[in-house]
Please model this.
Amino acid sequence: MLIALCSAKGAPGVTTSGLALALCWPRPLVLAELDPAGGDVLAGYGRGEVSAGGLADLELAARRGGPARHLDAQLMRLDAEGRVRLLPGLADPAGARHVDWDRLATVLASVEGGAVDVVADCGRLHAEHFPLPAVRRAAAVVVVTGSTLRAVRAAARAIAELQAEKGRGGMLGALVVGAGEPYGEREIGEALGVPVVGSLPRDAKAAAVLSDGEPAGRLFAQSALLRAARAVAARLADSAAAQESRLTPPPAPVSAAEATVGGSRVR
Ligand SMILES: Nc1ncnc2c1ncn2[C@@H]1O[C@H](COP(=O)(O)OP(=O)(O)OP(=O)(O)O)[C@@H](O)[C@H]1O
Ligand SMILES: [Mg+2]
Model:
């Protein structure tokens, strides 16, 4: 199941919010950095760690014969158990024009046969080479927005554009960073005409751990940002899964002759 995060003009925080959600995701997850402007997680949270591969190498491998077989080799662990993994984004944004977003979105929509969810950081909606196929294939598309009038207006325009896209019918929602500064979730939801999947507080200290690799410290896991991210991740994972099952056609009915266990009929 694929969940696409993107932003409109003037709304910082997609990468930080995506990483916070990824670290709190209730199921195994890949955070895929599809922002055509380049990936930030290794330079920030990873404190300059060098990737063994990532999106650019996956693209190269795909041209030689099918990305599904190669995806695993491009992922890096974000936690000790390897439950949360990262597909590092482009080191050089010039590579964005060569990425086959269609092919990549198809692969990311069913990692390990759907057993692994994918949250994709798609960056800004109006960026050149924006990964629109990821949005079209997603079970949920979430626009990250601030709570000022300026930010909400830009988010409303982005949502109108996304609604006009002929995707597979994924749910469209908004995630508010800094709700109540000044507008709250309810007012923003009404203005946007889509559900607000939740909000993340402004928490500069915890955000800097995620965006710039500041030392996490003992209280990071209990920070306001991570506590809120846990709640949003649980809610978003549930509603996206419900949407995914509405979109996925149910399996074909099994004929009576096939529905046997140990040679005897089930019914
Ligand atoms: N919830 C938050 N509270 C406080 N600061 C935040 C929060 N989320 C993000 N920030 C800060 O905002 C800045 C930009 O964040 P981030 O890189 O996630 O934005 P972005 O939308 O991905 O930007 P870009 O368009 O460059 O990819 C960073 O300094 C980050 O620490
Ligand atoms: Mg970003």
In short: The radius of gyration is 19 Å. The pocket of adenosine-5'-triphosphate (ligand 1) is lined by residues 7, 12-16, 35, 40, 123-124, 177, 200, 202-204, 207-208, 211, 225 (CB under 6 Å). Residues 37 and 93 are 5 Å apart (CA to CA). The chain has nine helices and ten strands.
